[in-house]
Specification:
The protein contains 14 helices and ten strands. The protein is of the alpha/beta class. The strands form two sheets. A five-stranded parallel beta sheet has the order 2-1-3-4-5, with helices on both faces. Strands 7-6-8-9-10 form a five-stranded parallel beta sheet, sandwiched between helices. Helix 12 (232-247) links the parallel strand 6 (223-228) and strand 7 (250-255). The longest helix has 21 residues, at 159-179. The radius of gyration is 20 Å and the shape is globular. The mean pLDDT is 94. Bound molecules: 6-O-phosphono-beta-D-glucopyranose. 6-O-phosphono-beta-D-glucopyranose binds at residues 57-60, 104-106, 109, 112, 155-157, 362-363, 365-366. 6-O-phosphono-beta-D-glucopyranose (BG6) binds at residues 57-60, 104-106, 109, 112, 155-157, 362-363, 365-366. Keywords: Aminotransferase, Cytoplasm, Glutamine amidotransferase, Repeat, Transferase. This is Glutamine--fructose-6-phosphate aminotransferase [isomerizing]. Its main location: cytoplasm.
Length: 369
């Protein structure tokens, strides 16, 4: 069942090119326009929504965090991301023009389900992004966009996360098409970039030995920090979560710009810091800003583990280790940037002799509030 891999998590990390490809499959018509057949919310409703609220827990919430950047950029609709258990208890402003997107691998997470019910009671339309056919959250939602990651066994989510992010991109592109916020040729170009991702993810997996080797040598570390900006920020949060979940190591993700407002006080001699570096080809200043964040932590003694694009030489002088990912348009980069972090956590936990598939105190789906 594990297909020759040491753990389900390891196998599921390697399933990711297929999980993303299958999630993208069959969602365009012969002219290249997006068709989301399952999305049974009337087009008129989707045209009139003035706000999107993503609700989810854990890793699924981080996929929503990536979605916020993409959907706001492509569709110019405000997107909030909220942990499902917080959403319900804070009197959220939700109405008929709100689209609530509930993301859940299992479709059974009670916190998310209760938030779905609450949103529908307030008159919102609810779209579920879910990996499990016929589960409760899609059944109680107005519509569902299924991820096709296949069954995920390991408690710590990997392939479901990538599939959720891919589904969120599809939703964003579909809304942009429907609302006319992007030209058809721009949309086609982004879709082509998206369809190139499974091969790029495979290239990251082909380089996994380098990541494993570093992870195995760091099994005795007590704490890791993760820094990222823009879509690299949720990637940093997810990288930290993986280490907490399966390696029981204290790990925290921060927005890199926040460093100087507090977290940099944590950095002293030898502190390992992962930095997710945006593409140097982006039109903004983000790349330069993040490179200077690497310099800042390094100057205070940090050991820097840098995730950077192929060909990005600017990071080399300040990196103790560089893990390379293929060149990818900024908004889509989480699909490659998170993969070395998953491999790292899995290899480190395995080196510690831990059961990576069944971490202590955690369940695959939490069906109590
Ligand atoms: C947690 C799982 O309990 O629930 C995480 O351990 C998962 O891996 C989270 O991300 C949300 O689960 P789901 O099924 O709603 O995506």
């Amino acid at each position: 069942v594990k297909g020759g891999f040491a753990s389900f998590m390891d196998k599921e990390i390697h399933d990711q090119p297929k999980a993303v490809a299958d999630t993208l499959l069959g969602r365009t018509d012969p002219r290249g326009a997006l068709v989301l057949d399952e999305l049974r919310i009337p087009e008129a409703t989707l045209r009139s929504i003035d706000k999107i609220i993503v609700i989810a827990c854990g890793t699924a919430a981080y996929s929503g965090h990536v979605a916020k950047y993409a959907i706001e950029h492509w569709c110019r609709i405000p997107v909030e991301v909220e942990l499902a258990h917080e959403f319900r208890y804070r009197d959220p402003i939700v109405g008929p023009r709100t689209l609530v997107v509930a993301i859940s691998q299992s479709g059974e997470t009670m916190d998310t389900l209760m938030a779905v019910r609450h949103a529908r009671e307030q008159g919102a339309s609810v779209l579920a992004i879910c990996n499990t056919h016929g589960s409760t959250i899609p059944r109680e939602s107005d519509a569902v966009l299924y991820t096709h990651a296949g069954p995920e066994v390991a408690v710590a989510s990997t392939k479901a996360f990538l599939a959720q992010v891919a589904a969120c991109y599809l939703l964003g592109l579909y809304l942009a098409q429907l609302r006319g916020t992007k030209f058809p040729d721009e949309l086609r170009e982004i879709l082509e970039d998206l369809h190139a991702l499974p091969d790029k993810i495979q290239r990251v997996l082909d380089d996994e030995e380098a990541v494993r080797h570093v992870a195995q040598k760091m099994a005795d570390e007590e704490s890791f920090l993760f820094l990222g900006r823009h879509v690299g920020y949720p990637v940093a949060l997810e990288g930290a979560l993986k280490l907490k979940e399966i390696a029981y190591i204290h790990a925290e993700g921060f927005a890199a710009g926040e460093l100087k407002h507090g977290p940099i006080a944590l950095v002293d001699e030898g502190q390992p810091v992962f930095v997710i570096v945006p593409s140097p080809r982006g039109r903004d200043q983000l790349h330069a800003k993040v490179v200077s964040n690497i310099q800042e932590v390094r100057a205070r003694g940090a050991r820097t583990l840098v995730i950077a694009e192929d060909g990005d030489e600017a990071v080399v002088p300040y990196a103790d280790v560089v893990f390379r990912v293929p060149q990818t348009p900024s908004l889509l980069a989480p699909l490659v940037a998170v993969v070395p972090l998953q491999i790292f956590a899995c290899a480190l936990a395995t080196a510690k002799g831990l059961d990576v598939d069944q971490p202590r105190n955690l369940a695959k789906s939490v069906t109590v509030e």
